Amino acid sequence: MKRLMTFSLIVLLPAGILAQDRIVPRSTLAVSFDLARFGHTDSSSYFELYFACFPPLVTLERRIDGYQGYLEIQTQIKNKQTGEYALQNRSLLTVSVKDTIDPSYHNTLVTQMGYVLPKGEYELYVTGIDTLDQRRRDSLVIPLVSGPDNSSGVAISDVELCSKIEQSDNTTGMFFKNAHEVIPNPTLLFGTANYPVVFHYAELYGLNPSDTYVVKVVLADAGGKPLQEHTRKKKYGVRNAVEVGTTNVVKLSSGKYRYQLYVLSESSEPLARVEKNFFVYNPQVKSAQVTDARMKETELSGLTGEELDQEFAYLRYHATEPEIKLYSQVTSVDGKREFLAAFWTIVEQGKMGRDPITRQEYMTRIKKASDRFRAFNREGWRTDRGRVFILYNEPDEIERMPSTESGKPYEIWHFYQIENGIEFVFVDRTGFGEYLLVHSTKRGELRDDGWRRLLQ
């Protein structure tokens, strides 16, 4: 299954803006990312990188026939042993819609890139930039290790979870692979509202053409407990083969799951295994969270309507705009208590990709933030430092730099256990002791690599 290395071309931004009308996103830029490693040669591996972006998160500008915006994707792959870059690439994803009611405005844009690299250990750096407002960025750094090794028997590539797979002869298509059109789902989110069926694609290596194999797919919960399982026998008749299948997830409750793919011998001897985490959103399926929410209602039973409002205000760092709007429409105390109890249940299990946190621990952080970071007329938990403390806890290290004749005071907070190490930079820009966040390397947070100019 030998492949050629592919390169993305940077497209020049078209001219001809008729007006300065812009559609400005209300939320931070977020680029969904996934990858899969496939076999190539004895000395190299083939990496596929998958990206997805939601058009409302990209700044759009009026053009002749609608609105356009651009997401620049910068990709760097560095060899960990030599420190040299094996790849540095920039590509542009165009977002083009007629207006905000255009169906394409609400459809996720997906693209992919493929690279052949010598076997080894690497670090992958990905940065997404909203080109019409380059302060809006998203980035990540992850380790990369060479793909499957079948020198000692049967091996499997990474499993690619997809929104659609079908047979195809369109060999020039972006998503064409081994006689199939394989459309990835980099969000890894499935469910009745978007993708009720998970398609999987994997490649098997080192098979014995005369043997029959058992392929098993297991859906497990976040802790690894099997929930669904199906198996089938197949004689591939070749040494290297493609494995494609589907799994329906409409009966799963919302949450995080593991997609596990096994290859066994005909006598059920395990030969190879891979897995990938994915997420399900099925609001119509009731789960154990209902019971947990009832217990949480009891915990909140002594709070007045005003106290419930204040507690939900504390939770705003975990709430989306629709959730904030929905809570504002609840008028009864019982309704607010029920809403807040259900919300706490989700937060305590880990919401929006964040670590689980109990109500008691969260409220403790609120109090500490209020005590430590009060600035001028702002409560401590409402400040930038307070928010970061509440969401990420105590930093591992803080660099405090006092004011000088040529610069304003600032702090750099280091968290070494998050995303291979991140930092937050706060500057007292007004001189009133309120340190504002000006830069962070945490994915999804404000990023401004030129933040030092703000010290002047």
Describe the structure.
The protein has four domains: 1-147, Immunoglobulin-like, CATH 2.60.40.3880; 154-283, Immunoglobulin-like (Sandwich), CATH 2.60.40.10; 288-357, no CATH class; 365-456, no CATH class. Helix 1 packs across helix 4 (333-349), helix 2 packs parallel to helix 4 (333-349) and helix 5 packs antiparallel against helix 6. It contains six helices and 24 strands. The strands form five sheets. Strands 1, 4, 5, 6, 8 and 9 form a six-stranded antiparallel beta sheet that branches. Strands 10, 11, 12, 13, 15 and 18 form a six-stranded antiparallel beta sheet that branches. A five-stranded mixed beta sheet has the order 14-20-19-16-17, with no helix packed on it. The N and C termini lie far apart (56 Å). The protein is globular, with a radius of gyration of 25 Å. By secondary structure, the chain is of the alpha+beta class.
Can you give keywords for this protein?
Immunoglobulin-like, six-stranded antiparallel β-sheet, disordered N terminus, alpha+beta, 456 residues, 4 domains, 6 helices
Percent of sequence in beta strands: 35-45%
Main β-sheet, in a few words? 6 strands, antiparallel
Overall CATH architecture of the largest domain: Sandwich
CATH topology heading of the largest domain: Immunoglobulin-like
Fraction of residues in helix: 10-25%
Shape: globular
For the secondary structure, the number of strands is 24
Q: Helices and strands, in N-to-C order?
A: EEEEEEEEEEEEEEEEEEEEHHHHHHEEEE
Mean pLDDT: 88
What integer value in Å does the Rg equal?
25 Å
Contiguous low-pLDDT stretches (5 residues minimum) are: 1-20
Number of helices: 6
What's the end-to-end separation, in Å? Answer: 56 Å
Q: What is the count of structural domains? A: 4
Structural class, please? alpha+beta
Multimeric organization: single chain
Name of the level-1 CATH class of the largest domain = Mainly Beta
